[in-house]
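Dear colleague,

Following up on Tuesday's group meeting, I ran the structure prediction for the two-component complex that the binding team flagged. I've pasted the input sequences exactly as they went in, so you can double-check that nothing got truncated or mislabelled along the way. The structure tokens for the whole assembly follow below. Feel free to forward this to whoever is handling the docking comparison.

Inputs:
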Amino acid sequence: MIETIRPALVITVREIRDQFRDWRVIFPVLGLTLFFPFLMNFTAQQILDFVHQYGANIIGERMIPFLLMIVGFFPISVSLVIALETFVGEKERGSIEPLLNTPLEDWQLYLGKLLAATVPPLASSYLGMMVYLSGLVRDGIPLPSLDLLFLIFLLTSVQALMMVAGAVVVSAQATSVRSANLLASFIVIPSALLIQGESVVMFWGNYDTLWWAVFGLVVLTVLLTRVGVAHFQREELLGREIDVLNLRWALRLFGTTFIGGAKNVREWFGAVLPRDLRKMAWPIAAMLVLALAGVLLGAAQVDRFRLPVDKTSLLGFSGGLETLTNRWQIGDFLPVLAIFWQNARAMLLGMVMGFLSLGVLGSIPLLMTMGIVGYLMQLLAVNGVPAWVSLVLLLPHGFLEIPAMVIASACVLRAGALMSTPNLNKTVGEVWIESIAEWCRIMLGLVLPLLLAAAIIEAWITPRIALFFVK
Amino acid sequence: MIVVEDLAKKFDDFTAVQGINLNVAPGQILALLGPNGAGKTTTVRMLTSILRPTRGRASVAGYDVVTQARQVRASVGVLTEHHGLYNRMNAAEYLDFYRQLYGVDRQTANLRINELLERFGLASAAKKRLGEYSKGMRQKLALVRAMLHNPPVLLLDEPTSAMDPESARVVRDAILGLRSQDVTIVLCTHNLVEAEELADIVAIIRRGSIIYDGSINGLKRTLLGPLEFEARLAAAAADWQPDPWPQGVTLSGRGEDWMRFIVESPQEANPTLLNQMTASGLKVVSFQEVTHSLEMAYLEAVSRYAGEMDV
């Protein structure tokens, strides 16, 4: 085992040694490790003194771990600079080809680079946090609890790993350091949003929520690393020279994939789309399980967040339905379009979230929708409304709408899986374009027609059936 | 040692190499010649398993470049166009880094590194930062890196392009020394004098296709015609001509005290020709082959091919 990892470590050691000979890396790291924690200690002391004057001690207590997280995060930002230029920087300096000519396996080279970009910033991050904590001890400020300290160190570590994993993927796929820096916004912006979210959670004091952030980051890091290794190609590293966006190529690839080899529309519907469904059998099964889990999770939330439902509101329900049926006349397309657009937008959001998170977050709209369904059904049930009423309200259009959502989410999940599957013949960009084209094909050929049909039923038929039964 | 069959490489719509065949025996030096963008680098990168061929197959040192990429890379030393040195390291550190990547044990490598640094005149600069190296020193160090693991195959891209004449001589001698140790060498170069001196066989590649491959003499003969010989005389011999003309000999030019003959088969015709001259009382000062350089043959090949393409 150690023998197979050794070449990767050789790369890591060389790179780390090289980094520590570069004053442009040394100075920021030293500053962030040795100066910045003292600044944070000073800030903590000032804030504590200030908030004590007004008895707002809780703000001071929450500030201490928050500042620890900030002290840990700043050196990690250096990792992004190092990681972004791991491959593409060597390519620009012309030193990548001799390295590619060595008998290293792709994964060894990738792992070596990944470790080299992670270890120094993470070490300086730990050092900075230790300096900050020492400062707290020196000033007599109480330290956060041990489990919270562990959580913050863990969060810092996985955050660094996630950023580095993402940056190395960018570096391996970019054509120049400039383009890698431009693409870094895909890492910087989500990371900044994450830090903001974590800050809110820290001030809120619900530290258990941070474990979910750790879990999410670990999943994302594993996926990003897998994507990086899966699409790491020696050939691509040397072959791509030009930064220009090749729109013609992209459109042609999109078009070819979208058509899927069909000779006419009939074949497209009759052969290509059924083939897609067959290919998505496992993702569809996974989404069905997730949908069921969503219903159960939603139902379980009724005990925690119970909305007050009184008899009068339930009695007024049939009146509401009557008003609705009067307003939504059969043949009126306005409510149909409103419902259709709402659902299509949710699918679009799922696609964007899914493509940015390698399929993971693409199932959120389905999970949320099914969670709401489960919650409402359970809420009605605990208030004495029989289950069949809920089914009458849901099933007529849900019969089409739920499969449509399951298929759309499965498509995004499959795209994520394809992205993280080794493919020596395709770049990340190619897989992306093909996945988007496949998503568009399934949306246009299956999901949108199903959603439209569901919207028609939901606007014109469901309220009338419900009214019939409720009366 | 290197066998290439119908090897092709396509990048999207562009065909860089289209179905080339090569065969280089152990201890042979092949000069891969061709204009910029002809497909030399792509070919070399396929031979080092960095690029995957679109079609065809190739084996290097007995290993298939697609299915045994790791073994191929372990058996090949490559001097790339960009030398790829790390400026903040010194030569000893740099070579030790590559020693570890090639899995050579420290003791063997140290002996070899010292010997190579000494041979290429870099021993005194072994502890100097590579950022301070001159172009020629960088090229020599890259060459040392390529030879470090004692590979049976060397692929050298312009091995002396940045060197002064003295260093270039050292490198050329080293290459000839390697040939005698049965190392197979592919030399990509624009320096045709160097190619002529070092190579046993040449392959001219143009627009992804090999337009000629074989021996240098064969190339000259194919492209520049039969050999030409010039006789220099001590006195004028304005009207002299052989009687009878030896078979396959024609007069290609003459001056007051010189004559040039095109000779189909010199081994048979030249002694007869010389005998006739001396028997006729001509005082022959010298009788030697008119040099046809590789450069002339190369330019002829390239222009002929261009002509064919235009047609």
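Residues 92 and 239 of chain B are 70 Å apart (CA to CA).

Cheers,
M.
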